[in-house]
Specification:
about 325 residues; alpha+beta; 5-stranded mixed β-sheet; about 40% helix
Amino acid sequence: MPTAGLLLAGCAGPQSALDPGGDQAHALFSLFGLMLWVSGAVYAVVLAGLGWALWRAWRRRGADARGDATLVGGVDARLDRTLPVVAGAIVLGLTVLITGSFFADRALFATRAAPALEVRVTGHQWWWRVQYRDRVSDGWIETANELHLPQGVTVRLVLNSADVIHSFWVPNVAGKLDMIPGRTNRLDVTARHAGWYRGQCAEFCGTQHAHMAFAVKVEPPAAFRAWLAAQAAPAAPAEGRGAAAFQATCAACHAIRGAGAAGRAGPDLTHVAARRTLAAGALTMTRGNLQGWIAQPQAIKPGTSMPAIPLTPADADAVATYLATLR
C-alpha cells in the first residue's frame, strides 16, 4: 500500500508531466497516454505469445513422446496462420503511434504563426536570466530564476544559453527544449491552470545542474500585468550602511535599477525580495538565507560563479537587510 501511494504521488504536483496545466503539456500527455495503451497492448500480446509458445513446446514434447505427428503438424499450421495477423497488428500499432505523434506535433506548433507575448530566457551556470518586453518603453524588464505567465495567453519563450548546453523544462506547462550556445530556440506555451509550478534544467550542465531550478507562476492576465508593472519600476533610492556596502562589493556583478548598480555578470536584484526562491531554487527567500548566501555561497552551492564576499558580519547583515527591502 505505501508503494502504491508513492507511485500515485508522481501523478500530480508542481513538477509532473502527468498533471498538465497548459495546452502544450496536454498534447504531450495525450501522446503519452496513446503510447502507453498501444505499448501495453503490444506487451500483453507478447506475453500471450510467450505463454502460447511454452504451452506449444509442452504439447510438442508430449506428441513426440507418443509419436503423434498429426498434433505437431496442426500446431505448426495454426502458427503459420497467426503470423500474418501479428504482423498486421504491428503495422496497425505503428500507424496509430505515427498518427498520434503527427497531431501532437501540430498541436505544439499551432500558435507559431500568431503574435505572442515574448519572453527571453537565458541559461547560465547555474541560474536563469528572464527578460520581458516592456511595451511602454520597448525595452526589456529583467528578473531572474522566476517566470510569470498570464493564464490563457500564449507566451513565446526565446531560449538562449550563455555558456554550455542547458535544457528548459516545465513539465506541467510544456515539454523540454535545449538551450544551445550561439543558437536561439523558441518555445510557445499556453498555460491554462493558475498556480505555482517548478521548472528545471533537464540537460547536465555541470556540478550544480541539480540546483538549477526556477519557479513558475501562472496568474490571471490582470494580475500578470500588475506584476510586470511592478517589476518595471526602479528600486527606491537607498542610503545607509547596507546600500553603501552593496555598492562597494556587489555592484560590479549585479544590477539594481534606480540605485546606480549596473553589473551584468549575475542576476538583476532590483526586486529580489519579491521572488520565491534564492540561488536558482536552492534556498527559500528569507533575510537569513540572503545573509547566508552573501557570506558563504560556495558552502551552499559549490562551484557557483559567485565568490564569498569579504564583508564583516555587521556589513553582511546590513546588505541582507537592504536586499530584503527590494520588493
